[in-house]
Write a structure and sequence with these properties.
alpha+beta; 6 helices; four-stranded mixed sheet; Translation Initiation Factor IF3
């Protein structure tokens, strides 16, 4: 019965239902737990417990308490040039990125290459990019602008 219900619900709703199923107890006469049933259903012979499931990568981006938002603010640490492509993907999903470049500050050439690539991409999609301090950069998706101000000379 649960298999039929689960196949009709998409991503977050399915995960929400699974979490609720996992938090209920199995029938009193049933010696097999809910995790065992789910493991068999999904082809896993290994049993799992609620802590293991909740800490799994599958549950990493699931917020069962709130409705999905149109846009998220995501803190991200960049460590290599390959991170630029991942950041572009997040920006294309309309997420705002708070980028930690402290690791990249040790390699100025790599830092400049990544920021140049991101700046070019953001300008192309009508987004924005601004350095907050020496370790953080704010990157916004299209149609989200950052009000920048110059340091006053006092």
């Amino acid at each position: 019965m649960w298999d039929c219900l689960l196949c009709h619900y998409s991503g977050v709703i399915r995960k929400f239902l699974i979490v609720n199923l996992l938090s209920t107890t199995a029938n009193k006469g049933d010696k097999m737990g809910v995790f065992d049933k789910l493991g068999q259903t999904f082809g896993s012979a290994k049993g799992m417990d609620i802590e293991e499931y909740m800490n799994s990568a599958e549950m990493e981006d699931v917020d069962v308490l709130h409705e999905p938002a149109e846009m998220y603010v995501k803190p991200v640490t960049a460590a290599s040039e390959s991170d630029a492509d991942l950041l572009q993907e997040e920006i294309s999903k309309r997420n705002i990125i708070l980028l930690d470049v402290s690791e990249l500050n040790k390699r100025p050439a790599t830092r400049n290459a990544i920021l140049t690539k991101l700046k070019s991409y953001v300008e192309k999609i009508n987004g924005d990019i601004a350095q907050i301090d020496e370790n953080r950069v704010l990157i916004t998706p299209s149609k989200v602008k950052i009000i920048k101000r110059r340091k006053s000379n006092r």
